[in-house]
């Protein structure tokens, strides 16, 4: 007949030993404060990251041990937890490194970034407070890295790979945004469409590599002419460029366009021998927002494009401005 066996619990001393092992192995900081804020427990993780042994801090008042914490969010959290008997969580966004804790063995330099929680508890009739400190430096670093990569990818998706100025996608977004702003505020907005004259002949004569160099040089010169933060210089496609000019009426836009045309001509980039002009030039069409006619992206683009087409037929190297009142008449 099989006898039933009853497992006997280990002695209390071995439990204490086990608790000590667990505290030593814990990969986070664990400290316990008594009702007077004195340290009654301080685990190995905290000793390794602070340079202060448990023996040294035992019985010390936490905020005398770390005066910089006095009056800060941590002291408020401890007081609140002890009074309300409710746990408190410190947001890393408000203070990323409240405790002077450093990578193991350094005890100086840049602090580890921390998540801190405060939990009140009672043992018998005595009140205590458990403070847990986690090293979130790796997590925060990874988040920053991922955020940086996302921002870089987003930036790349809005930048023309050849010229380094805004691409067509960025242009479309900016034009739509500024149109809505002009409509809300009954403001002004102008659009420039421009094209390098006889660029095919340039490419055919000098080759595509030199053609790319020409596009880049023109883009840099054109973008440098737009000085206001909200102005946008973009590569519209091929040898075509565009500019979005917020808070800009037709007269001011015409002056901008003429200055850009003159700047490109002044680069004195040698053109193909078969072209009438000896240097690379640019034709520009200008359209300005009008709430009654040119009041969306499609109509503004069509108006600017028609002016650009007219500039080509007018002999190139010139600026043509769309004038709604004259067209309506």
Automatic annotation (TrEMBL):
Which InterPro entries does the record cross-reference, listed alphabetically? Answer: Diguanylate_Cyclase (IPR050469), GGDEF_dom (IPR000160), Nucleotide_cyclase (IPR029787), PAS (IPR000014), PAS-like_dom_sf (IPR035965), PAS_4 (IPR013656), Rev_trsase/Diguanyl_cyclase (IPR043128)
An example Pfam family from this entry, by short name, is PAS_4
Q: Which GO terms describe its cellular component?
A: plasma membrane
Question: Which molecular-function annotations from GO does this UniProt entry contain?
Answer: diguanylate cyclase activity
GO terms of biological process kind: cell adhesion involved in single-species biofilm formation; negative regulation of bacterial-type flagellum-dependent cell motility
Q: Which reaction does it catalyse?
A: 2 GTP = 3',3'-c-di-GMP + 2 diphosphate
Residue stretches making up the GGDEF domain: 187-324
Quote the NCBIfam families the UniProt record gives: GGDEF, sensory_box
Q: What is this protein called?
A: diguanylate cyclase
Organism annotation: Rugamonas aquatica
């Amino acid at each position: 007949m099989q006898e039933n066996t009853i497992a006997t619990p280990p002695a209390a001393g071995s439990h204490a030993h086990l608790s000590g092992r667990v505290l030593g192995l814990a990969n986070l900081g664990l400290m316990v404060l008594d009702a007077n804020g004195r340290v009654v427990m301080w685990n190995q993780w905290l000793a390794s990251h602070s340079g202060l042994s448990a023996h040294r801090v035992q019985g010390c008042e936490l905020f005398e041990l770390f005066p910089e914490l006095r009056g800060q969010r941590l002291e408020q959290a401890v007081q609140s937890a002890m009074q309300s008997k409710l746990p408190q969580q410190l947001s890393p966004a408000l203070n990323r490194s409240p405790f002077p804790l450093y990578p193991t063995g350094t005890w100086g330099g840049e602090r580890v970034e921390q998540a801190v929680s405060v939990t009140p508890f009672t043992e018998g009739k005595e009140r205590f407070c458990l403070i847990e400190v986690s090293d979130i430096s790796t997590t925060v670093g990874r988040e920053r890295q991922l955020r940086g990569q996302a921002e870089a990818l987003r930036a790349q998706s809005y930048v023309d790979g050849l010229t380094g100025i805004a691409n067509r996608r960025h242009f479309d977004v900016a034009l739509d945004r500024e149109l809505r702003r002009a409509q809300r505020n009954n403001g002004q907005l102008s659009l420039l469409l421009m094209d390098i004259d006889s660029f095919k002949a340039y490419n055919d004569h000098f080759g595509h590599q030199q053609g790319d160099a020409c596009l880049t040089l023109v883009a840099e010169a054109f973008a440098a002419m737009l000085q206001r933060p909200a102005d946008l210089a973009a590569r519209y496609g091929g040898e075509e460029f565009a500019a979005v000019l917020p808070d800009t009426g037709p007269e001011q836009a015409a002056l901008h366009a003429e200055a850009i045309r003159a700047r490109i001509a002044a680069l004195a980039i040698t053109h193909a021998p078969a072209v009438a002009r000896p240097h690379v030039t640019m034709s520009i069409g200008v359209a300005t927002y009008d709430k009654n006619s040119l009041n969306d992206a499609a109509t503004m683009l069509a108006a600017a494009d028609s002016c650009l087409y007219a500039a080509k037929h007018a002999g190139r190297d010139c600026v043509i401005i769309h004038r709604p009142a004259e067209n309506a008449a």
